[in-house]
């Protein structure tokens, strides 16, 4: 992506290019071990227009790099390759299956006088490995959520089936990657939890229990409100990737019809059923139409042990969304959906307005929050809870942060430092712009605070953060 | 004299330096190419005998004209030996092949262009042939291949052993042709395959109009650096930043330049891409080993500054005066070192007008001395190049210890005249006499590093302080001060760990893309603070439970103490002398 | 007693033991882990020879190839050259022959040449026979000794023999010049009288 930044008064401008995807491929060296068979190794390659020999060369380089690093540590081979122009990330999600993502380094194009071609300067220190490495890992997780593992596909239908699935999935998924705005949150891949009082939480829990009792086909349930998680019956890792899918892909596609204007095309969806606001986000878009065909997306969970394939039913009423997961062997009929709709619809609608009311009450009580004053990011490794007051909107398409990207990179650096040791640590830095960044790690939790207090000294900064921790985090962070 | 010419390659204008820019070794190389000199030709053959695992050597002397071909090299891991002889491939294809299947491919290699050969290389590598062939053991089993020089330190280490892999930092130096030049651990022979792979990776990325920088894995960082015809690779589990590792490789490169000069290296490889630089570096492995040990254990290389021995300024001044008076034409630097730290350095006025002796050069010089301390009763006279000063010409260094047999006080006099030994030695005698008259050696023996307790701050465990605002800043040798490392950093392991922590902070503070002004790091075993201002750079280490208030107070006290002691801790006003340049008596005269 | 200064240089392949020989001669000690010499090392030792004091000004040169071209600086003006080889390494003997050629072509015409076959304590690993070496030394009228710096064998011998062969200074203080000053052609057989 190109961003123009006017720099020179002369009217000639420097052009700043952000990181972008150069190529992405998946290979398995065992599929083409002999001379002349190299092409067979390649299971997926983007961009597809690349000439065959060049694909083979690029894959060969990755193999060579991985092999070379095995010389020094056979069990922990290469994770990334840095070159002047790009970065290559390697990930082996399943034995012998390798995924490689090549990202072009950000660069600056400086115009030259006298009609000479502009000089290109690559910025080699901008991309943080942990961030983009996480993005690559997430590519696999997302694929696996909807397609199961590579090895199972290979077992079921050989290379043909596998390549088909990869092509179908990645062709679309890669288009959703927005590499110019990846940051620390991609490393965490966390889940935003909706803050609830105990009463309401119990109501939700009992609701889920009742539905699961009545509709015994339902294996797992997850309950979200406003893009935030409240309850999940899935394993953590599965919920994590499902959450990402829901909040960055599914939900943004279905804005609330009841919030739409009178003339909005979304309006008709609501017509006819004034008993509740519930509707299916996956599956039947319009229950009224008996001829309309529908299907539910299939997801794969617990791939490490029980390996389950499930239908994903996402049902929403106002701001509350519930996911019901049913064994995919079951054929979900229209009758089932109608049953679900009539049972869940009204209850969920009530529950949604309850939650809304309770939330407003809580806000009134706690008063104007001090939160917005503090720019911070919080993450808890144990439950994956994440909170950021820096990101204004985080969807697949854009991540707007209220701080300079360089500061986000500093956060990324501190996170890397924390990852090196298990013990609790604190790192405070003062940037060249005089912003202060405070990073705290305590007992599986990480907190990053950015302070724009140029004339503050270390002691004052410490006091500020102490105050934040006291109000927001109940002093769970060890402070001096 | 045009001071700018000192830095440019324009040798003609440089009067004060040794106009005989031709470094000693280059004469030898040139002779090797002409058939007229019996001596060197024989010498060539001798060398080849010494490296029997290098088949090219035999063909080399048999067919000197083949050197002229500029066929590009694409060595592969398995076929390292064969691809080495790219110049002579038509002669050897189908010759001593270990894998018959390869023979035809090799000739195919010759016919096809560079792209195809790199494709071949990569597919060969990718098939893990290297693993099948036992990772670079080729040549190691050869009974003829034993290191003829030096004690069998880690040169003969088994490179397939886990212990070899476990080394904290490997450094490899190879030529663009993939020929091994140096390896810190293990012999170059045993590692020629591995080095071949490295070169293949460099070439492959290069062929895509790109430059390889580094490879990261969980345990290691591999950093590549190319300088002229040499490729240097560091494989480190020290978790240092890429920039730092690359700076360390630059030190290694510069140490090689200090022995051969950059001009020679360039010329040698221009003339002969296949040249085995080990011929010229034989016996110098210890010097490079020593440098890498220093890199890990001595913060002066990290800070790019010189550590001075704390000394009463009156004593230091009198020593400087002694050096200032003992001069001779063409003498440019007089350096006095005690206990591996700088006592004083006196510089020639004209030489230093716009240029100055860089700490990096001094580190290289000190390392060279440290690696050659065997002959402590003698006086050494050796050519040495100071790469940051001028990478293409030699100084001549006179090195002598003033206090045998303890040998802790070393005098180094640098001249531009290679014939000047006797007059420079005379300077030493004058210096010796004057020092004896003042009983200087006795006073020096009493000088030593200080303990951090002298600062009088309880929580402070250690620090490193490097000032920027010094008198005559642009002419000054950058210095730093630091106390002894004491408990809990008494063991080598703990000292390395502390230095690693400093190194981490240094790399963050000096990051090229997002530098910082201050880092405060509270960890389990210590609390560290690093701080850069326009006036100084400071690294401090406290006990882990120190409060921020205490730390800040401690630093204030420390800065005050340093200011009070600065005359003792630093060379404040580097003295100068003037020696009228003589037309240099060099090999131009012939003999 | 009169004092004479005799400039002597040591030449030879790297690792043959030049520094060890000098170290043994000057300090009477031996370091098995001695570092390769860089450049050249200068030491002096004064011994009594008959009724004179001979002060040897010894240039111990580095044998590494990169220092080769500096050698002329040291052998030029030397009264004697001790060329050292390692009896356990045939190549070092070949190198020695090259040094002899070089001295003949470029060295001072009067120079006394001594050939020292060092490491004679390692006779089990011998590659150069004493006879061959002695024959060669005789053919060029050079002193020949097999030495061991490690075990202090024949080290002083070398220097004594050099003292013996150095030309006597006659009454007017000039050395007797017993040779023609023209350079010796490299290929011709020489009538080289003993220095």
From TrEMBL, chain A:
GO terms for cellular component: Mon1-Ccz1 complex. Residues 370-468 form the CCZ1/INTU/HPS4 third Longin domain. Residues 218-344 form the CCZ1/INTU second Longin domain. Residues 22-148 form the CCZ1/INTU/HSP4 first Longin domain. It comes from the Eukaryota. One of its GO terms (biological process) is vesicle-mediated transport. Belongs to the CCZ1 family. This is Vacuolar fusion protein CCZ1 homolog.
UniProtKB/TrEMBL annotation, chain B:
GO terms for cellular component: Mon1-Ccz1 complex. InterPro entries: FUZ/MON1/HPS1_longin_1, FUZ/MON1/HPS1_longin_2, FUZ/MON1/HPS1_longin_3, Mon1. Residues 169-291 form the FUZ/MON1/HPS1 first Longin domain. Residues 330-431 form the FUZ/MON1/HPS1 second Longin domain. Residues 43-115, 132-157 are annotated as: Disordered. Plays an important role in membrane trafficking through the secretory apparatus. This is Vacuolar fusion protein MON1 homolog. It comes from Phoxinus phoxinus (Eurasian minnow).
From TrEMBL, chain C:
InterPro entries: P-loop_NTPase, Small_GTP-bd, Small_GTPase. It is a lipid-anchor. It comes from the Eukaryota. It is found in: Cytoplasmic vesicle, Phagosome membrane; Early endosome. One of its GO terms (cellular component) is early endosome. Its main location: membrane. SUPFAM superfamilies: P-loop containing nucleoside triphosphate hydrolases. GO terms for molecular function: GTP binding; GTPase activity. Keywords: Cytoplasmic vesicle, Endosome, GTP-binding, Lipoprotein, Membrane, Nucleotide-binding, Prenylation. It holds the Pfam family Ras. PANTHER family: PTHR47978. This is Ras-related protein Rab-22A. It comes from Phoxinus phoxinus (Eurasian minnow).
